[in-house]
From TrEMBL:
The lineage of its organism: Bacteria, Bacillati, Bacillota, Bacilli, Bacillales. This is Holin-like toxin. Keywords: Membrane, Transmembrane, Transmembrane helix. It holds the Pfam family Hol_Tox. The chain crosses the membrane at residues 20-44.
Amino acid sequence: MHSQMQGGQWPLPERKGVVLMMAIADALTLMIAFASLIVAVIAVSKDKK
């Protein structure tokens, strides 16, 4: 797969789509990380009360 990308055999729109998918995946990962962090903070604050 990497050799195909380096060889420039992929058409431009397809490559843009792959980059977009990777960006969406990164955004989802960040959102999940933040969500778990917030849940942990809420759990700790509830325990303190």
